[in-house]
Amino acid sequence: MHYPFEVEKLPYAYTALEPFLSCEILRFHHDKHYVAYVNKLNEILKNYPNLQNMSLEELLTDTEALPNEAKTSIRNNAGGVYNHELYFTCMNCSDSELPTDHLAAAINVAFGSIDQFKAELSGAAVNQFGSGYAWLILSNKSLEIIATPNQDTPISATVTPLLCIDVWEHAYYLQYQNRRADYVDNWFHLINWDFVGARYMSLMKEPV
Ligand SMILES: [Fe+2]
User: Fold this and answer.
1) Which end of the chain is more exposed for a tag (fewer CB within 10 A), N or C?
2) Ligand 1 centre from 34 Cα, in Å?
3) How far apart are CA 122 and CA 184, in angstroms?
4) Distance separating alpha carbons of residues 12 and 205, to the nearest angstrom
């Protein structure tokens, strides 16, 4: 996908994630916050025809190709698009709390147990200072958990995010107010493990 970037529709209804995530939150989050990043990115790229054939991933990884005066705004807005698209796709309403098969085995190897994985991801999300995300990433074929501020994206030649939770206040405040830990706890009900597991398998097949 290249310029002009198009808004991805939510892969489920606005009400699909209730009661864990309200319709009101999802509507604002997708239709206002995410859409604003898409529009802003297109607005910036309108002035740079030579960047218009770059994919979202290329804009985030090939920063040498970006003009100095637009580097920060492209990184922030391309990050806002990429991060939100992954966040929305990583959720569904199946209420399957556990990963399966190869991903479950890899999580056990990396973290010791599924419970320990959840504790570490939850800790990264709750303790991220201010706005940002907590991530399950694949780094050189190994699973790791990290947190990033603002719209930073942990994507590079050897690192690919598998799963993320948005901990900006706009992701939970209308329903949870200041109780980020409650939002994070409930978000575990929403993980689309089929998507994350398939993404893991496809990345593991690629050469390092
Ligand atoms: Fe967000």
Assistant:
1) C
2) 7
3) 6
4) 29
Mean pLDDT of 19-35: 97
pTM for the predicted model, two decimal places: 0.96
Domains with residue ranges and CATH for the chain: 23-89 (1.10.287.990), 101-205 (3.55.40.20)
Calculate the average pLDDT of the chain. Answer: 94
Whole-angstrom distance, CA of residue 152 vs CA of residue 159: 13
Q: pLDDT tens digits for 94-153?
A: 767 678 789 999 999 999 999 999 999 999 999 999 999 999 999 999 999 999 999 999
Residue type, 174: L
Q: Which residues surround ligand 1, an ion (CB under 5 A)?
A: 166, 168
DSSP of 137-179: EEETTEEEEEEEETT----SSSEEEEEEEE-SGGGTHHHHTT-
Neighbours of 142 (CB within 10 A): 10
